[in-house]
């Protein structure tokens, strides 16, 4: 019985290392990009490519999370009292070298899946994929980590939001259209919002650690206002696409997710301690998840019903 409990605890440690609550930031854009290809371009979906892209994206996201834990530990930014971290090093005693090996192994599997995707579509994607993987490493690795700069939200949004949507769209259609770009912009903004909410939560520790994040540069109150703006622009953007670009009105299903960002902003306004604002982080991530799914579902309703 004891061995079973220990094995279960061990699995939870390794599962927690991937930070599974963040993986929707890689899953949802793949779903959305594929839904756009089906609904807008009337494209028959290649499910082999879809699942290859999905798994590769999630592996890269998980590996990026591991690089984050590795380098935050190496730089002395994480300790057993830190909030919102994987904690496998400082709390569970996992060796940093082990985490790096796992992360690089995930990258290797993602590269194999990328070879399959490129062989089925275009080898130009190899360059795009390698750049995305390099950015995933440099986000917290290298001499000038992106996450410690004011550009973390922009870079993560562009790569994990817009980038994944457009790659998922391209592998199904072998093209990138204006509609696909326009529909990917809310995904870019909301992935950036996840990073901004993380930086708002960590503003005290990041300041002490010498980071120069956007939240630190503009101040906590202004950062919350920027986060609110991210949410507002995302919803208004889809309204504009429905009104001006002729995107299906079913896209307005996204408004079912509105309680999530409202709750996130309320918590950030009312609370300041890192532990107290953790639910706001969850609601921000859920906004990205529900918004992307609802937008994709709206597009699929258009495809199957009209």
Automatic annotation (TrEMBL):
A GO molecular-function annotation: 1,4-dihydroxy-2-naphthoate polyprenyltransferase activity
Primary localisation category: membrane
Enzyme Commission (EC) number: 2.5.1.74
Transmembrane domains' residue ranges: 20-40, 47-67, 98-116, 123-142, 154-171, 178-196, 235-259, 280-304
Membrane topology classification: Multi-pass membrane protein
Pathway info: Quinol/quinone metabolism; menaquinone biosynthesis; menaquinol from 1,4-dihydroxy-2-naphthoate: step 1/2
UniProt subcellular location: Cell membrane; Membrane
This protein's record includes keyword Cell membrane: yes
InterPro entries referenced in this protein's UniProt entry, alphabetically: MenA, UbiA_prenyltransferase, UbiA_sf, UBIAD1
Pfam families linked to this entry: UbiA
Catalytic activities: an all-trans-polyprenyl diphosphate + 1,4-dihydroxy-2-naphthoate + H(+) = a 2-demethylmenaquinol + CO2 + diphosphate
Keyword terms, alphabetized: Cell membrane, Membrane, Menaquinone biosynthesis, Transferase, Transmembrane, Transmembrane helix
NCBIfam families in alphabetical order: menA (TIGR00751), PRK06080.1-1 (NF004749)
Its job: Conversion of 1,4-dihydroxy-2-naphthoate (DHNA) to demethylmenaquinone (DMK).
Family named by the database record: Belongs to the MenA family. Type 1 subfamily.
PANTHER family attached to this UniProt entry: 1,4-DIHYDROXY-2-NAPHTHOATE OCTAPRENYLTRANSFERASE, UBIA PRENYLTRANSFERASE DOMAIN-CONTAINING PROTEIN 1
Protein name per Swiss-Prot or TrEMBL: 1,4-dihydroxy-2-naphthoate octaprenyltransferase
């Amino acid at each position: 019985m004891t061995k079973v409990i220990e094995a279960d605890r061990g699995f939870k440690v390794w599962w927690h290392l991937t930070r599974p609550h963040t993986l929707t930031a890689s899953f949802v854009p793949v779903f959305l990009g594929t839904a756009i290809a089906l609904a807008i371009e009337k494209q028959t979906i290649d499910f082999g490519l879809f699942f290859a892209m999905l798994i590769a994206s999630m592996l890269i996201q998980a590996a990026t999370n591991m690089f984050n834990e590795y380098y935050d530990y190496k730089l002395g930014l994480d300790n057993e009292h830190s909030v919102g971290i994987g904690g496998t090093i400082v709390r569970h005693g996992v060796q940093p070298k082990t985490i790096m090996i796992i992360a690089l192994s995930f990258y290797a599997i993602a590269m194999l899946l990328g070879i399959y995707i490129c062989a089925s579509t275009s080898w130009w994607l190899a360059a795009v994929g390698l750049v995305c993987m390099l950015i995933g490493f440099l986000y917290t690795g290298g001499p000038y980590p992106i996450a410690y700069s004011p550009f973390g939200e922009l870079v993560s949004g562009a790569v994990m939001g817009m980038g994944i949507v457009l790659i998922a769209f391209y592998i199904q259609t072998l093209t990138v259209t204006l509609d696909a770009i326009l529909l990917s912009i809310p995904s870019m903004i909301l992935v950036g919002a996840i990073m901004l909410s993380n930086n708002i939560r960590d503003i005290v520790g990041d300041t002490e650690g010498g980071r120069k994040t956007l939240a630190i540069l503009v101040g906590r109150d202004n950062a919350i206002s920027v986060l609110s703006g991210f949410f507002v622009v995302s919803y208004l953007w889809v309204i504009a696409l429905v009104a001006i670009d002729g995107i299906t009105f079913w896209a307005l299903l996204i408004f079912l997710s509105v309680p999530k960002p409202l709750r996130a902003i309320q918590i950030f306004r009312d609370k300041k301690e890192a532990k107290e604002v953790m639910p706001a982080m969850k609601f921000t991530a859920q906004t990205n998840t529900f918004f992307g799914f609802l937008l994709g579902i709206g597009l699929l309703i258009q495809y199957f019903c009209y």
